[in-house]
Amino acid sequence: MSNLRIVVLMHDGLIPPDSLTKEHDRETAEWKSEYDVVSGLRALGHDARPIGVSYDLTPIRDAIVDWKPHAAFNLLEEFHGVAVYDQHMAAYLELMRQPYTGCNPRGLMLSHDKALSKKILTYHRIDVPEFAVFPRGQKVRRPKNLEFPLLVKSATEDASLGIAQASVVSNDAKLQDRVAYLHDQLATDALVEQYIEGRELYVGVLGNQRLRTFPAWEMSFSGMPEGTAHIATAKVKWDHKYQKKYGIATGAAKDLPVGAAERLDKLSKRIYKTLALSGYARMDFRLTPEGKFYVLEANPNPNLAQGEDYAESAAHAGLEYGELLQQILNLGLQYRAEWKLV
User: Fold this and answer.
1) Residue 183: in which H helix or E strand, if any?
2) In the 8-state DSSP scheme, what is residue 79?
3) For a Cys-Cys bond, which of 160, 255, 274, 328 suits 234, CB 3.0-4.6 Å?
4) What phi and psi, each to the nearest 5 degrees, are found at residue 68?
5) Which CATH code fits 5-102+336-341?
6) DSSP classification of residue 207
């Protein structure tokens, strides 16, 4: 399937250049994912047009009505600066009867509400860390089942926003301080969960009904100073200087316990189906020294940049970048949205 008209939806501040110059540092550019996807689709022979969106739906509607694209490649992660509004962007595309890539609105809603997703997974007997939600405007009262150390993070934000070394707390005073920080700085409820010591593993999943998983990927914290928590803070994820300084890197997980790869495969697919995900997603796990897996999060529509975990693990499984984009596009075209059933 070639020569398709594709609108690539992205934040209007992340529209990439059509070509790179010496002044562009592609590896550290904020628009790296957007550039990789647009240029990758064009290399496949598609007519890919970036559409910037931030506070107004008009650019999307105009592109759909005037150009009649075969598909929308959805890279939007927010609207009006609100992360959980990405579910409404997918819903708008469905209302416009526009095929699109990535996760459906229901899956986005369930997975982005981290407390709700943990409750659903717990009901299905899938292990998650013990947790509690501390809403804005309410006092912090730690339940007895939450024992220190604890990890404090936003109940809805993605990309490790608000997560730092100070997010791991060891007493009630620090817990109250960190919850107050999240309430004030991010204006979101705080999710407080048991801190699980162990290896950080990621598993990519691709598909709608028939699912494929990629080899487990691991984040290495081997160069971190002694006494620091091995967590994917905002600096660990996005600060290239910090990564180089402490030797933080990701790669294929090695020396997993016997049978662990098979367990991760089944568990990842089970989570994907339980949370009604579609398109593509990444599952985040902790593997304890005792060999137990805990699900940290399910991440629909993860970062698609070349060199990042999802694309690298796909390549490790024999699916090169262009093939990955094409399969994601095919899944979007094949997804059976409700309007297709009418």
Assistant:
1) helix 172-185
2) B
3) 160
4) 50, 60
5) 3.40.50.20
6) E
pLDDT, tens digit, 9 for 90 and up, residues 119-174: 999 999 999 999 999 999 888 999 988 999 999 999 888 767 888 899 999 999 99
pTM score over 0.85: yes
> Is the distance from CB of 332 to CB of 205 less than 8 angstroms?
no
Instruction: Give the span between the Cα atoms of 167 and 231, in whole angstroms.
Output: 9
Fold of 129-194: Dna Ligase; domain 1 (3.30.1490)
Beta strand pairing call for 47-53 and 5-11 = parallel
The ranges assigned to domains in the chain are 5-102+336-341, 129-194, 197-322
Instruction: Find out whether the peptide bond into 149 is cis, omega within 30 degrees of 0.
Output: yes
**In the numeric block, which tokens belong to residue 322?**
């262009």
Task: Return the closest-CA partner of residue 231 out of 204, 262, 188, 195.
Answer: 195
Amino acid at 82: V
Question: 64-99: b or e for each residue (b if 16 or more CB lie within 10 Å)?
Answer: beeeebbbbbbbbbbbeeebbbbbbbbbbbbeeebb
Q: Which of 309, 330, 328 is closest to 75 using CA atoms?
A: 328
